[in-house]
Amino acid sequence: MEGRGTLSDIYQSSKRLLLRTRDGLEKLERYEIPSSNDLDSPELTSSLKKDIAHIQSLCIEMDRLWRSVASKPQRDLWKRKVEQVAEEADSLKQSLDKHLLHNQKRMQEAKERAELLGRANGDSAYVLRIFDDEAQAMQSAHNSSKMLEEAYSTGVVILSKYSEQRDRLKSAQRKALDILNTVGLSASVLKLIERRNRIDRRIKYTGMVVTVIVVYAFWRWTR
Q1: What confidence tier does 196 reach under pLDDT thresholds 50, 70, 90?
Q2: How far is 115 from 122, CA to CA, in rounded Å?
Q3: pLDDT tens sequence across 151-190
Q4: How far apart are CA 21 and CA 89, in angstroms?
Q5: Is the pTM of this model over 0.85?
Q6: How far apart are CA 212 and CA 216, in angstroms?
Q7: Contact indicator for 14, 62 with CB cutoff of 8 Å
Q8: CB–CB of 25/94 below 8 Å?
């Protein structure tokens, strides 16, 4: 097994394993569908797991050895080197786990697609019903959107008509004020005319009542 010896020898062995693991992981991540010309993906995955586990075991060994270094500066230096190797090993392990999880998800999706296709071949009505339901949902959403657009358009037209009417009323009001100003009629004159009209109406109604009374009295007297 690699890595047994002095601290320096074990460190060099761990660095070689790190390099080999990085290269293997990059090759594994390039696999989408393993071909017969390449190393089988499960075999490469197993090799990478072993290398990472080996690096981690070397880190444990180096962690024990650097503590026995006599010189403090050398101890601090070896401590940083060992920690760096351990961090790189952890990073590679996380990348491998992430790749395996992604690959597992991809295989599950492929399996589900195959099952769906098999179900479609065995029962096409099931798949057609799914498509019909989706089509109906899309049509319903389209109709709702169309109704909202029509309601919005109607509201815009109504508000536009109200605005036009308001503008016409304002215009008529301005014309009426202009006419009054032109004729020169003041508010007091208008009130006087209105009061005279009321008096004339009262005189007219009073005359009508008196006339009716007189006619009725004359009719009663001549009977």
Answers
A1: confident
A2: 10
A3: 556 655 555 665 566 667 667 667 766 765 665 555 666 6
A4: 9
A5: no
A6: 6
A7: yes
A8: no
Residue 94 and residue 198: Cα distance in Å, rounded?
101
Q: Which residue has the tokens 């491998």?
A: 96
Q: Is the dihedral of CA 26, 29, 33, 39 positive or negative?
A: positive
Q: Please, are residues 21 and 51 in contact by the beta-carbon 8 Å criterion?
A: yes
Listed in sequence order, the DSSP H helices in the chain are 7-29, 41-66, 72-122, 124-183, 187-222
Contact (CB, 8 A) for 47 and 24: yes
Residue by residue, DSSP assigns 165-208 as: HHHHHHHHHHHHHHHHHHHT--HHHHHHHHHHHHHHHHHHHHHH
Query: How far from the centroid of its chain's Cα atoms is residue 57's Cα?
Result: 48
Q: Which residues of 11-22 are buried (b: 16+ CB within 10 A; e: fewer)?
A: bebbbebbeebb
Count CB neighbours of 103 within 10 A.
16
Per-residue pLDDT tens over the stretch 65-109:
999 999 999 999 999 999 999 999 999 999 999 988 888 888 888
Q: Give the position of tokens 């959403």.
A: 141
Task: Find the distance separating the first CA and the last CA of the chain, reported in whole Å.
Answer: 153
